[in-house]
Design brief:
The protein is α/β, with parallel strands linked by helices and about 800 residues long. It contains 30 helices and 19 strands. Among the domains are: about 160 residues, no CATH class; about 240 residues, no CATH class. It is globular, with a radius of gyration of 28 Å.
Length: about 800
């Protein structure tokens, strides 16, 4: 029996659909771990994922009980949900019943020791092969590909029996798969592939992402790996170690009663009419609807017309990422002075591959669902030669020091001498970081103040350069492309008025000794800082040729408007402005803005510090700086924990409401978007990305062991690509416990699916849903809850019911 390699690979590709992609830690991309199940109703998806991955899909009954006792679940809302599904019984009794089923489930399960051995041995070889520069002595023959490299070394692994020579193993990965499955009918192969790919979803997801990348990165080009090679090694190991090849139905399945309990389905009086929707789904929906109702109660339904040009110009307009952390600082900036803030996806509509001034690598600074279209690099400006020289001196010195220390620590001959001679200095540095993190923060801040950043002396190369193409990406942008970026930004935000200063503020985090630091950076920039994208859009909007073209298209940018970039440090709430090009005529405006940003920072930091366990609210700014510098700090910030909603509309809808850092806010003015193109871009882009973020936080909270990454205390980095728990095993795919919970018993993140609220005519929204199957699928299958506040119907709210049907919040005829 011999099959074409293409046939086997097609089957593997289909089998891998249920395993989500995993990105390396240095560019941590937030994604739904159950993305392969989004074509199914939510309760079916979590049930099937539990069978495949072993992870739970709903909060534990104890979490529902906490939410119930804290008043987060409205009794009337819960009662309506229970009645709608034909469930009787008092809430407390139903919670007790769910808890009983939960305890029965936790007592089930068996261990297949042979399969555990396969997992452990395979993980060891994957970590060695996929290493991205961490290992001083790398695995030999990696350039030949994963299967060939492993086959050459397997005879030297004492944990691989029955293999004394590479010739004992099939020569090609396709032959290895065929040999391992020769006793199994071909009709079962795809199910077998799915079972083995799901056994280590972290490593599988990483291989899948790396192999699927249309523009293979340097590591994949140098050391190729595919899912076929991955399965060839795994199936060969299973054969040699006498592990099960077929999915073991006996171990995967449990009794009907316990299976029901695993999803929280109540029995007896709590049984649903159709036996289809688990009780946990009902409680979750009630919790989500309670949150939605409170959110809608706080929205200003009196909003009618947007601001007109006759209104007084704000002192400055600031555009932040839609990130939930921006909601907090935006609120305090608006309170500090006559400022107008807006929300826009943090890559600022510039899909680029970016290389910093002193960086050796490119990064994709755009969402994963968007392909980069331009290559942008930083170019030192002639007028800032002194700043550049100061930057170069410091970075060269620091780089040389790091390289020297690394060579001493990793050199076999020098390591012991280095420890003897440098131990006291290292010990002093460790003591300072451990005992005096605030002093370390002060020192670091002093250095930062003296050393110019590249944003202070560089300008991005935005003009098209025909001799600078790299691969398929052009270097720079044409005039038409620049105009399109600016026009799209203004259209999406509904801008018709411009102040003297307009700030595009990207965001980044600051943290020490944190493998997950990129998860705190900008998700819209693929887990990278958003400052470069902000600087590109500011440069575009300052281009006189761009402005002239924009005026022809109806965007009359005043001659005294200056665009500048900034970067919001979400750990400390400091906002750095890149203002080297701001003319003297605007210096007074700029200084006023700086002062007010400092006031907003202090207020926002105080609000954040109150939510952090053990925080010093006495000096919130200093406390946030300490957290950023303290290498023992497991919670430098909460990140996007708490996210629950996505509000699309003018700021007037929410500007007087404290949304507690739980809402993504995207600016949109329906009256300036008669064709609906801007709303379509928001619903097919940012809405989908926020759902990914929301689902990653949701699943990492409800089952951190399977969909998260466990405690930071016991994590170990692997090969600059990810972390494992302890000394080996699968690559962890999600967020650590400390990013989600206050303590072992109390979650900080409330595990709710995304609630979207859009201020637009309902027919416009319906038209977009009807034309975009991927959006309709997420809505119809319950991954996103959608409410429209219709400005053409007195701002009444309508809840989406699926299949393009809506239910008004008041007793009105249904809208179809």
């Amino acid at each position: 029996m011999t099959l074409e390699r293409a046939t086997v690979e097609d089957s593997i590709e289909r089998a891998a659909d249920t395993v989500g992609s995993v990105w390396p830690l240095h560019s941590f991309v937030t994604a739904n771990p159950l993305s392969g199940f989004e074509d199914r109703p939510f309760h079916r998806a979590v049930e099937e994922a539990e069978e495949l991955f072993g992870g739970r899909g709903y909060p534990r009954p104890s979490v529902f009980r906490q939410a119930w006792e804290q008043g987060r679940i409205d009794p009337d809302v819960l009662g309506a949900e229970l009645d709608a599904h034909g469930v009787s019984g008092e809430p407390e009794a139903l919670l007790d019943e769910m808890a009983t089923a939960e305890s029965e489930r936790d007592g089930q399960g068996e261990t297949d020791h042979a399969t555990e051995t396969v997992d452990r041995v395979l993980s060891k070889w994957l970590a060695a092969f996929l290493d991205q520069g961490q290992a001083q002595w790398s695995m030999p023959d990696r350039e030949r590909g994963f299967y060939a490299a492993w086959r050459a070394l397997a005879p030297y692994d004492d944990e691989v029996p029955g293999c004394d020579d590479p010739a004992d193993l099939p020569e090609t990965p396709t032959a290895a798969v065929e040999a391992a499955l020769s006793d199994h009918p071909q009709g079962r192969w795809e199910d077998i592939f799915e079972h083995h790919l799901a056994a280590l979803p972290g490593w599988t997801g990483f291989v899948k992402q790396r192999a699927d990348d249309d523009d293979a990165g340097p590591w994949q080009e140098a050391y190729p790996i595919s899912l076929l090679e991955y399965l060839a090694v795994r199936l060969t190991l299973a054969d040699l170690l006498d592990a099960s090849v077929e999915p073991d139905e006996g171990l995967a399945a449990v009794s009907d009663g316990v299976a029901a309990g695993s999803n929280g389905v109540a029995t007896g009086s709590g049984e649903t009419d159709d036996g289809d929707v688990p009780l946990s789904e009902i409680w979750l929906t009630a919790w989500e609807n309670s949150y939605r109702d409170r959110l809608l109660d706080g929205i200003d339904r009196t909003v009618t017309e947007p601001a007109t040009e006759n209104d007084e110009r704000p002192a400055a307009q600031l555009v932040f990422c839609i990130d939930t952390r921006s909601e907090v600082v935006r609120r305090h900036i608006e309170a500090a002075g006559p400022y107008e803030t807006h929300g826009y996806a943090g890559f600022f509509g510039v899909p680029m591959r970016y290389q910093g001034y002193d960086s050796d690598v490119d990064i994709d600074a755009c969402p994963p669902i968007v392909d980069p279209q331009h290559r942008i690099t930083d170019r030192p400006e002639h007028d800032h030669r002194d700043d550049r020289a100061a930057h170069d001196r410091w970075t060269d010195l620091a780089s040389a020091g790091r390289k020297h220390l690394k060579s001493l620590k990793t050199n076999v001959a020098a390591a012991f001498t280095f420890v003897e001679g440098g131990g006291s200095a290292y010990g002093a540095a460790m003591a300072a970081r451990t005992l005096l993190p605030s002093a370390v923060a002060d020192l670091s801040g002093a250095v930062d103040d003296r050393v110019p950043s590249q944003g202070e002396f560089c300008e991005p190369t935005i003009d098209r350069q025909c001799d600078g193409d790299v691969g398929d990406l052009p270097k720079g942008m044409t005039l038409a492309e620049k105009v399109s970026c600016a026009e799209t930004a203004f259209e999406l935000m509904g801008w018709e008025q411009f102040s003297r200063l307009v700030v595009f503020a990207g965001h980044a985090s600051e943290t020490t000794n944190n493998p997950f630091d990129s998860s705190l950076d900008c998700g819209a920039c693929a887990g990278n800082p958003g400052g470069p994208n902000a600087r590109v859009l500011a440069a575009i909007c300052n281009d006189e040729a761009v402005r002239a073209e924009l005026r022809e298209r109806g965007f009359d940018v005043p001659s005294d408007t200056v665009f500048l970039a900034g970067e919001h440090n979400t750990t400390t709430d400091e906002i750095t402005l890149f203002d080297g090009h701001v003319p003297e005529s605007h210096r007074e405006d700029l200084e006023r803005l700086r002062d007010d940003l400092e006031a907003a920072r202090a207020a926002a930091a105080a609000e954040r510090t109150e939510s952090m366990a053990g925080g010093d609210a006495g000096d919130a700014v200093r406390e946030t700086e300490r957290r950023a510098a303290d290498w023992a700090e497991t919670r430098p910030e909460w990140g996007l924990a708490g996210n629950a909603s996505f509000v699309v509309g003018p700021r007037a809808l929410t500007e007087d409401e404290n949304l507690d850092g739980r809402a993504f806010l995207h600016s949109y003015d329906w009256s300036t978007d008669p064709g609906g193109e801007a709303l379509e871009a928001i619903m097919t882009g940012p809405l989908v990305v926020t759902q990914w973020i929301n689902d990653q936080y949701y699943f990492a909270t409800v089952d951190n062991a399977v969909y998260g990454s466990g405690s930071k205390v016991t994590q170990n980095p692997r090969g600059n690509v990810g972390v494992v728990q302890g000394n080996g095993g699968d690559l962890m795919t999600g967020l650590p416990l400390q990013s989600l919970k206050v303590d072992d018993e109390q979650p900080y993140h409330q595990p709710l699916r995304l609630t979207a609220v859009i201020h637009a005519p309902i027919e416009r929204v319906n038209d977009i849903i009807g034309r975009h199957e991927e959006v309709a699928t997420l809505l119809d299958n319950g991954w996103i809850s959608l409410t429209v506040v219709d400005p053409e119907q007195d701002n009444d709210a309508f809840h989406y019911q699926g299949d393009l049907e809506w239910e008004p919040t008041l007793a009105k005829p249904l809208v179809h």
